[in-house]
Design a protein that fits this description.
GO terms for molecular function: oxidoreductase activity. The chain is an alpha+beta fold. The radius of gyration is 18 Å and the shape is globular.
């Protein structure tokens, strides 16, 4: 964890939010069930390589070392700024003035059952705010699914 490219307070806050870190693992494949829902992820185990010119050690794959874990949801987050292709490619999606996705207090977009959070809503922000958005969206999704199921 000490080698993670994050501020100490970000890691601390993430743990307070219930985030469990699985360091030095890289997802390489998602496995779906018969209905097409994700059920497992295969992770490539990594180790820290030699330091580069700046002294930073980058992860390097350990050949043949993988781990498969059961999951029921995969959220992929890449980069530190919103991808403009996503909001511009979905018809009817309301955008903010900076091209970010507009959402309500539950992180739901102008299209029912499409939720967004983090940089795609806020622009560049902290991972803590993104995690909070994700938690809020997940709670709203859960309530919506229970309502739709009649529970």
């Amino acid at each position: 964890e000490e080698e993670m490219p994050a501020r100490i307070e970000e890691v601390k806050h993430a743990k307070e939010e219930g985030v469990e870190f699985l360091t030095l693992h890289n997802p390489i494949e998602y496995i779906a069930d018969e209905q097409g829902c994700v059920k497992q992820v295969i992770l490539q185990k990594m180790e820290l390589g030699e330091p580069d010119a700046s002294g930073r050690r980058s992860p390097v794959a350990i050949p043949g070392a993988t781990e498969t874990i059961d999951i029921d949801l995969a959220i992929v987050s890449v980069g530190v700024s919103p991808n403009p292709i996503v909001p511009s490619s979905i018809k009817g999606l309301e955008l903010g003035r900076k091209g970010t996705i507009a959402v309500n207090d539950n992180m739901e977009s102008s299209i029912p059952m499409i939720y967004a959070g983090g940089d795609i809503v806020r622009g560049g922000a902290t991972v803590i705010l993104a995690m909070g958005d994700g938690r809020k969206a997940a709670a709203a999704m859960n309530e919506q699914l229970k309502t739709n199921a009649g529970n």
